[in-house]
Sequence to fold (69 residues):
Amino acid sequence: MKIKSEYSANQAHILELAIDTFGSQETAEAWMNDYNRMLGGTPLTIAESDTGMQEVKKILGAISYGGVA
Fold:
């Protein structure tokens, strides 16, 4: 797994949101590295683009606020 300093700016931002959502860096990184059917790839890879980052943020928001993802 990458350490935080090796993430792109988008990925680092998404990682912080994922940590807030899941409560630990370990769980957040596991989620970010697992294939997500809704995204068609891993959140980590999808978050490399600005558009992808927005999609990952939507899913994290749904998870945080009781949506399905």
Q: What stands out?
A: Residues 35 and 42 are 4 Å apart (CA to CA). The mean pLDDT is 86.
